[in-house]
Write a structure and sequence with these properties.
Blueprint (H helix, E strand, L loop, with lengths): L2 E5 L4 H10 L2 H25 L6 H5 E6 L2 E6 L4 H6 L9 H29 L1
Antiparallel strand pairs: 1-3, 2-3
Helix pairs in contact: 2-5
């Protein structure tokens, strides 16, 4: 069993529609910004994850699909460490990483969109 979070920003459907009207190079800028921030979220989560053997830390991943950043861990016990059980306190290594980096993700998207707009209007 694994655990995965999707990072969705309010208004993404409208943003997605606007981005899809941009040319491929400009879409790539926005995607790259999202990917970069997702990788930072992954690194933060890896730093927050408990380490005994390193399996959990090594199972943490980040990807961007259909304009949605996904950060998760595929270790079978990741969900129990993230959310806890009646015997284990939740560690929240993934959700805390997302909380820490959420504003940076929004800023990166805004910067990429602003750059795309400036390039198309120039």
């Amino acid at each position: 069993m694994s655990v995965e979070y999707e990072v969705k920003v309010e208004g993404t459907e409208e943003l997605k529609a606007k981005i899809e009207r941009l040319d491929a190079a400009l879409q790539a800028k926005v995607h790259d910004g999202m990917k970069e921030q997702a990788e930072i979220m992954k690194t933060v989560a890896q730093n927050l994850a408990p380490v005994r053997t390193g399996r959990l830390r090594d199972s943490i991943y980040a990807k961007v699909e259909n304009w949605i950043a996904k950060v998760g861990a595929s270790a079978p016990y990741a969900v129990y460490l993230e959310f806890g059980t009646r015997f284990i306190q939740p560690i929240r290594f993934l959700s805390r990483a997302i909380e820490i980096q959420a504003q940076s993700m929004i800023n990166a998207i805004n910067q990429a969109v602003d750059a795309a707009i400036k390039e198309t209007s120039a």
